[in-house]
Amino acid sequence: MKRGLIVVDLQNEYLPTGKLPLTGIDTAVENAIRVISDARDAGLPVFHIRHESAEEAPIFAKGSVGANIQSDVAPRDNESVILKKHINAFRETDLKQQLEAADVQEIVVIGAMSHMCIDAVVRAAADMGYQVTVLHDACATLDLTFRGVSVPAAMAHAAIMAAFEFGYATVQSVDEYLLA
Predict the structure, then answer these.
(1) 4 and 82 Cβ atoms separated by less than 8 Å
(2) What is the set of domains in the chain, with CATH numbers?
(3) Is the model's pTM score more than 0.90?
(4) How many CA atoms lie within 13 A of 29 on its CB side?
(5) Which of 71, 77, 143, 170 could tie 133 with a disulfide, CB 3.0–4.6 Å?
(6) How far is CA 106 from CA 102, 137, 174, in A?
(7) Would you say 31 and 174 are in contact if contact means Cβ atoms under 8 Å apart?
(8) Are the C-beta atoms of residues 95 and 82 closer than 8 Å to each other?
């Protein structure tokens, strides 16, 4: 079964210098670098997802530095960059067509944010029949609040990973994945 790597929204906006800094983003990017390097060495297709909002949006604004993919995980010339305008990377993009063209049946997902764009792409991919692996320590999120309840980023991340593991994906650490 052919595998492909999907790198979701590792953009400048999520760095400590961005408008939406994530908890654990530095570790997630360090691990993402290892996974991307491994995929390249193995000749696996790498698909970079880049979110872009309307020009007047407060984050990921078209043409802004924040909307750029982080230089440490920048795509190479032969790697796809899929521009998305919605949370789900499959919605109104050609991601599925690109996966099919590359004959990918198994996907590995890394990136940001665990509770939003990672969640959406993992569930959609599983629903489409892809075998999905999520590398939990190459993903990051932020603290959440719901109706006065504060949820630390680590808890939000763990809840999403637990849901994936329960019914949507294999969840591994980067070390487990690279050793397999």
Answers:
(1) no
(2) 3-179 (3.40.50.850)
(3) yes
(4) 19
(5) 170
(6) 11, 19, 16
(7) yes
(8) yes
